[in-house]
């Protein structure tokens, strides 16, 4: 059992997410629970808020963060308040969905009305909320997908729709396992190494990318991420070599470039040096299914 305030809550589902063992009191759709007996790193209380938290009182003050992205009503798609008396952060989303995260990044609560599906809650948990939790725990989170090349993590970073997931999926089809999709968390080890932790064993692709990579009408093989969206979920945990479950040393970060890797044509990615990448400029080349980092 997990404790939410003084109330015991059964947390019978455990998942490996972004390098963390997350225990939940409800099964999370689209994810397979583990038979883990070790203590979780994070506990998720679905359908609950911390006892004694007065949301109306919290929202009397200005949020310290407003998302730059807005919904159809012109309002930010998320806002964050600090709750110093509880040592918590309160995060709200449209349609009445709200999350609460403790300042240590060890406990998450969420509450939502009936009109919001658990699929939507899970999608936001796996994205923005886990990114915030990882930030609180000292990780650097990038809006990027990652693959493993010669034992190192190569990240594809960019804005939505640039092809991060499609590029990662294309590399997986050529024998280079995916490490994370859309959210890549980097942590510094005690010896100074930068390691990218494994995310969720899947990639989420729009229909045109699915057909480009897997053939016409292939979308029928893959479930939708959300009932109201057309994005498909391609699971990678059922095929050997498509997903890496161990952290990989950070090697490079670059823009996504889908090119024609799925058809065997070559393309090149030039990766400039950043403060996090020490050494010479990297050139990644995909030719007939091979990738070389020089």
Structure description:
This protein is an alpha+beta fold and 294 residues long. 14% of the residues lie in helices and 34% in strands. It contains four helices and 22 strands. The chain has helices spanning 55-58, 118-136, 164-173, 207-214; strands spanning 2-4, 7-9, 13-17, 20-24, 42-46, 65-66, 79-83, 88-92, 98-102, 107-111, 140-142, 144-149, 152-157, 178-180, 184-188, 194-196, 202-205, 232-235, 248-254, 267-271, 282-287, 290-293. The strands form five sheets. The chain has an eight-stranded mixed sheet with strand order 3-4-5-10-9-8-7-6, covered by helices on one side. A seven-stranded mixed sheet has the order 11-15-16-19-13-12-14, covered by helices on one side. Strand 21 and strand 22 (290-293) form a beta hairpin. The radius of gyration is 20 Å and the shape is globular. The N and C termini lie far apart (50 Å). Mean pLDDT is 83; it is low at 3-8 and 259-294.
Instruction: Give the number of helices.
Output: 4
**How big a fraction of the residues is strand?**
25-35%
Spatial strand sequence of the major β-sheet: 3-4-5-10-9-8-7-6
Overall number of strands:
22
Helix/strand-derived category reads: alpha+beta
Q: Describe the largest sheet.
A: 8 strands, mixed
What number is the mean pLDDT? 83
Q: How many angstroms separate the termini?
A: 50 Å
Shape: globular
- Secondary-structure element order, N to C: EEEEEHEEEEEHEEEHEEEEHEEEEE
| Unreliable residue runs | 3-8, 259-294
Radius of gyration from the alpha-carbon trace, in angstroms: 20 Å
- Percent in helix: 10-25%
């Amino acid at each position: 059992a997990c404790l939410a305030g003084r109330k015991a809550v059964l947390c019978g589902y455990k998942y490996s997410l972004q390098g963390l063992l997350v225990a939940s009191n409800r099964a999370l759709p689209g994810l397979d629970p583990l038979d883990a007996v070790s203590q979780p790193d994070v506990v998720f209380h679905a359908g609950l808020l911390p006892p004694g938290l007065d949301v109306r009182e919290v929202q009397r003050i200005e949020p310290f963060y407003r998302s730059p992205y807005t919904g159809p009503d012109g309002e930010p798609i998320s806002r964050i308040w600090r709750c110093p008396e509880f040592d918590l952060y309160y995060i709200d989303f449209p349609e009445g969905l709200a999350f609460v995260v403790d300042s240590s990044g060890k406990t998450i609560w969420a509450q939502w009305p009936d009109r919001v599906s658990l699929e939507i809650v899970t999608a936001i948990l796996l994205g923005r909320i886990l990114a915030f939790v990882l930030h609180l725990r000292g990780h650097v989170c990038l809006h990027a997908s990652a693959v493993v090349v010669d034992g190192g993590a190569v990240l594809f970073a960019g804005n939505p729709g640039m092809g991060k997931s499609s590029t990662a999926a294309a590399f997986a089809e050529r024998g280079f396992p995916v490490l994370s999709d859309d959210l890549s968390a980097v942590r510094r080890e005690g010896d100074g190494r930068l390691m990218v932790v494994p995310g969720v064993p899947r990639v989420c692709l729009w229909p045109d990318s699915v057909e480009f990579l897997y053939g016409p009408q292939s979308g029928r093989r893959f479930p939708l991420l959300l009932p109201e969206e057309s994005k498909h979920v391609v699971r990678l945990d059922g095929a050997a070599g498509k997903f890496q479950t161990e952290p990989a040393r950070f090697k490079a970060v670059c823009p996504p470039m889908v090119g024609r890797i799925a058809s065997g044509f070559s393309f090149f990615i030039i990766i400039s040096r950043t403060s996090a990448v020490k050494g010479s400029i990297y050139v990644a080349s995909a030719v007939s299914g091979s990738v070389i980092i020089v």
